[in-house]
Amino acid sequence: MAVKPIRLFGDPVLRTPAEPVKDFDKELRQLVKDLTDTMIDAPGAGLAAPQLGVGLRVFTYYVDDRLGHVVNPTLDLSDEQETDDEGCLSLPGLAFPTPRSLGVVAKGFNMHGEPITLEGTHLLARCVQHETDHLDGIIFIDRMDAEQRKAAMKAIREAEWFGEPAPVVKESPHRTLGKAI
Hints:
Elements: H1 26-41, E1 46-48, E2 58-63, E3 66-77, E4 81-88, E5 91-101, E6 103-109, E7 115-121, H2 122-135, H3 146-158
Antiparallel strand pairs: 1-2, 2-3, 3-6, 4-5, 6-7
């Protein structure tokens, strides 16, 4: 099991757009495993690579007994919207009503570089949009109107985990050959 620490709100990596995956290699497969193990252990419905401090466009999901991942996703969203409570593993214990498209078609790749299409509505659609937002440096509270966002920020500042120091990142003594993983 490869459970990693999840970055919390306030960590700059969560506001930094992730880079497209170019190498579908052993390191990417390990990242997908780490994301999956960490997401299930948390437990959560989804987890994006930036939440583990990795600036690559990949996320995992586990919704309605559907477990999977998407690399380099692009989304086609339905026009119909719904607002429902949404939480985030990077804002533990908090959930707020957040508007999202009711349906989504996500296209991307699996960890082996094979093209995939993922279609979903309701919770799966919400999860895919939420995780793709993470890849763009967007946090779900950014989707709220100003009044709701102000209330959410108040709750965040009052959370016991808020203001915790960012995790210490150790540099590998091994050559990484310019790869982010």
